[in-house]
Every structure is written in structure tokens, then in C-alpha cells.
Write a structure and sequence with these properties.
alpha/beta, 25% strand, 277 residues, disordered N terminus
């Protein structure tokens, strides 16, 4: 009787030990898989809907989803850091982040210090103003006070086309610049056309876009110059999204299907850059 009981206890004990060992192995497999997966640090400034914004504490927008989808098809995870727009490139150069998504125009000056992916969106600048401003095009901006987001190509375009620095008012983010226009703080805004369109479509404002689209610009994903392997991964991922239809879907999900900025095929940064010097 005692012998049988002892055998039974030994059998139960062995089963418990085997189960425990199995559980440990499973946990080790889960933990060991994740640390080996590449995690790309992504910098962004979530003040530029519909490309980069924050809703209910979550990052969202065309750029955010694009880099996530590229990570999915290329087998890496992304981890976001948010900062002021004019701090994105310095953070990238300092190695604080690996890549930057932020509707960044590919310019010759930026290419001196960072790498860019192939272009994923064709944009341009437009003028946003009030109906009674008398401004009908770029030539009418002379002598007016013009609001922009600090660190953007809008500044270079205006300086390069005769607008004096004293007539340019720079704001930390474009939302503040738009508010200044609606409150009479500036006469006009010169900024990326997709953002201007989004503003008048989603906000309670009588502002309007006037004149022609200026300075055709292409957006690219900026990458630390020491991370050339990431340039290849991101370009490969972008090509896959263009092929499998996910790139098209971004225009539906974030731009109401508006495809003026659609990029067909490969648009290398050196072929589409704008000169700002």
C-alpha cells in the first residue's frame, strides 16, 4: 500500500517537473525570438495631418502607416519618438533615431547630411489666405506678413524668390500658423498643399487656397547616413507596397482617394531633389 502510494507520488512529481520544463522552454522561445528582430527607431512630429498626427494618444497618418507597413514586409519593428519638426533632422544626424518620417521634402541641402529613400509622394506649396486679403498669387505676397512652419522648405522658397526675411513669421508647428491666419496675425500661409487642403476641409475656417501650386517637391523617408542597410530595406519595402496595392490604399485611407501626389514606380532622391541653396 505504502509502496503504491510512493510510486504514485513519484509519477505525479515527474509529470509536474516535465510540465514545468516545457513551460520554461516555451517562454525562452518567445523571448529569444523578439530580441533578434530589428527595431527601427523612428522620429516624427505629429503636427501635420493627414500625414503625421496624434489622435487619442495614438500616432496616425499616411507616413505613420507607411513606415509600419514597410516594417511588416521587411521584417522589422518600429518604435516612434515624437519631437518638434525642426528637431527631426538634428536627432537623425545625432543618431538618436534611425529614420524620420514627417512629409520631408527631398532637398539638396538635406541630402548633404542624411540619406533619403526613394520618393513616396509628390507635393508642392500653395498659398492659404482670407477671401478679402487681396492676395491672388505669389506676386501679391510682397510686403505682406506670411506665416510658415519653422524649418520647412517654405522659407527657402520665399527667400529664393525675393520675399524679405522680416516679412516671414515662423511658427513651431503649422497648427499655430493656421490659427494665426484665422486670428489676423498673418496675411497668408505658404505651406504644403496637402496640408492646406486638409485644413480647409476639416476646420471651421473661411480661409481659401489661391494661385498656382509652387515648387514641386517630393517626400522621402530620411535615414541616418550610417544606416545604408536601412535605405535598401525601406526602398525594397516601398516597392513591395507599390506592387501589392497597400501603397494605393494609403491614399484612400488618409487622403480621401486624392492621388495628385501618387508616385509611379521608382523616383530616386537624386533625380527629384529640389535645390534650396
Amino acid at each position: 500500500m505504502k509502496k503504491s502510494l510512493l510510486m504514485l507520488l513519484l509519477i505525479i512529481g515527474s509529470a509536474i517537473m516535465l510540465a514545468a520544463c516545457g513551460s520554461d522552454n516555451a517562454e525562452k522561445e518567445e523571448v529569444s525570438a523578439d530580441p533578434e528582430k530589428l527595431v527601427v527607431q523612428v522620429g516624427t512630429s505629429p503636427t501635420y495631418p493627414p500625414f503625421d498626427s496624434e489622435e487619442n494618444g495614438e500616432l496616425t497618418g499616411f507616413d505613420i502607416e507607411l513606415i509600419k507597413k514597410i516594417g511588416e514586409v521587411e521584417g522589422f519593428d518600429v518604435e516612434f519618438s515624437t519631437m518638434q519638426f525642426d528637431g527631426l533632422i538634428p536627432a537623425l544626424k545625432a543618431g538618436q533615431v534611425d529614420v524620420v518620417v514627417g512629409a520631408l521634402s527631398i532637398t539638396d541641402k538635406r541630402l548633404e547630411s542624411v540619406s533619403f529613400s526613394n520618393a513616396y509622394y509628390k507635393s508642392g506649396l500653395s498659398i492659404l489666405t482670407k477671401p478679402d486679403s487681396g492676395i491672388k498669387g505669389f506676386d501679391d505676397l510682397d510686403g505682406k506678413l506670411i506665416g510658415i512652419q519653422k524649418g520647412t522648405s517654405s522659407y527657402n522658397y520665399m527667400i529664393g524668390n525675393g520675399i524679405e526675411d522680416q516679412n516671414i513669421k515662423q511658427y513651431a508647428d503649422i497648427a499655430t500658423a493656421y490659427s494665426a491666419l484665422d486670428n489676423g496675425g498673418v496675411d497668408a500661409i505658404l505651406y504644403d498643399n496637402p496640408s492646406n487642403i486638409n485644413y480647409i476641409q476639416t476646420q471651421d475656417t473661411d480661409s481659401e487656397i489661391v494661385g498656382d501650386i509652387l515648387a514641386g517637391e517630393y517626400y522621402g523617408i530620411a535615414i541616418n547616413k550610417d544606416k545604408e542597410d536601412l535605405v535598401t530595406k525601406i526602398n525594397d519595402g516601398l516597392a513591395k507596397l507599390q506592387e501589392n496595392g497597400e501603397y494605393d490604399k494609403l491614399f484612400v485611407d488618409y487622403l480621401n482617394g486624392e492621388k495628385n501626389g501618387f508616385v509611379e514606380g521608382v523616383a530616386k532622391p537624386e533625380d527629384v531633389l529640389i535645390k534650396v541653396d
